[in-house]
């Protein structure tokens, strides 16, 4: 983008362009910082490959999560901290292979996720 193009942008367009500067290969993200390959996220920071997340921090491969921190491979989780492979969980800390806050073995978890057509 050059000076002439910038001068012709509205405030809303400037905000959109600014958001693009703060993310890498991300699309439709709003107020995200240092996010890579994220899509449709809002107010996330230092996330990678996340989709439709809000206010998540330092997380990877999240889908539809909110306020999760340092999580990996979780889906539809809220307020989880340092969790991985969790599905529809709320307010968990340092957990792995949980569905609806119930702990499963890795094998049980993978079987249930596959049964639901998600793996």
Architecture overview:
With 119 residues, this protein is α/β, with parallel strands linked by helices. The protein has one domain (3-115). 22% of the residues lie in helices and 12% in strands. The protein has 3 helices and 5 strands. The chain has a 3-stranded mixed β-sheet with strand order 3-4-5, with helices on one face. It has a two-stranded parallel sheet with strand order 1-2. A hairpin with a 2-residue loop joins strand 4 and strand 5. The longest helix has 11 residues, at 11-21.
**How far from one another are the termini?**
41 Å
Shape field: elongated
Q: Which regions contain 5 or more consecutive residues with pLDDT less than 50?
A: none
The main sheet comes to:
3 strands, mixed
| SSE ordering | HHEEEEEH
Adjacency order of strands in the biggest sheet:
3-4-5
- Helical segment count: 3
Please estimate the helix content.
Answer: 10-25%
How many domains? The number is: 1
Mean pLDDT: 91
Q: Say how many strands there are.
A: 5
Q: Report the radius of gyration as a whole number of Å.
A: 17 Å
Note the beta-strand portion: 5-15%
**From the helix content, strand content and strand pairing, which structural class follows?**
alpha/beta
Outline of the structure:
The chain has 119 residues and is an alpha/beta fold.
List keywords for this structure.
119 residues; alpha/beta; two-stranded parallel sheet; 3 helices; elongated
